[in-house]
Amino acid sequence: IDDLRDDDGSAIIGVRRWNWSNVNTSGGELLHPEVRRIDVRSGMNRSLTSSPLIHASFLTDNNGVTRFTYGEDNAQKYKVYYRTADGKDWELIINEAHDGTRVYPVAFNRSGDGVYFFCGGEKGVGGLCLWSVAERTFKTLWSGKEAAPIKFDKTFDGKDIYAIRSQPGRTAVTLVDRDAAEAKLLAEMMG
Fold it and tell me: What does DSSP say about strands 45-50 and 55-60: parallel, antiparallel, or unpaired?
């Protein structure tokens, strides 16, 4: 989930466990996934949180705190849960079953006041939206015309997104932050 760029001895990992107590009758059942902090030298780990969804992924902020969990529920509808800080309760912020929206968080921005989401964009093909943490609203930053994003390029320090890659026939790169050092380097290399 997060390699904790400022901590060489630890990482944040996701653990998917099975309940094997009824393996003879039903083959076991998937339990709620957990987020754990692991000591990469010893393998010792401790649980930090778990998801209210069984089929879930997680996203940490730039400080390594798990702030989002998202995925499909049992009805195969996407849900996104958010929490304001470590130890806080999960809050359902997006429910595809109610609003028809299938979005998921990709990364926090550098300042931490916004979160990049994969979204439908203005044309419904796919796009990149910015969710305001304070206002809890979306702003479309980029909309695919022919193809959805296939990759979001992060800055060298991993604290922001500077480009989007899509493939409308061949790979295209769209700069999100033209002022980022990585964007200037990429533009210089592409001539």
Answer: unpaired
Instruction: With H, G, I as helix, E, B as strand and everything else as coil, classify residue 38.
Output: strand
Amino acid (1-letter code) at residue 15: V
Please name every residue paired with 50 in a beta bridge, in sequence order, or none if there are none. Answer: 34
DSSP character string of 133-191: TTT--EEEEEE-SS--EEEEEEPTTSSSEEEEEE-SSS-EEEES-TTSHHHHHHHHHH-
Query: Tokens for 1?
Result: 């989930």
According to DSSP, the β-strands at 55-60 and 66-72 are: antiparallel
Give the CA distances from residue 85 to residues 67, 71, 121, in Å, rounded to whole numbers and listed in that order: 7, 20, 28
Question: Residue 99: left if φ>0, alpha if ψ -120 to 50, beta else—which one?
Answer: alpha
Alpha carbon distances (Å) from 75 to 36, 50, 52, 54, 135: 27, 20, 14, 12, 29
The residue among 81, 157, 71, 76 whose CA lies nearest residue 115 is: 81
> What's the confidence (pLDDT) of residue 124?
86
For the chain, residues with pLDDT lower than 50 are: none
Q: What's the rounded Cα separation, in Å, for the pair 24 and 42?
A: 34
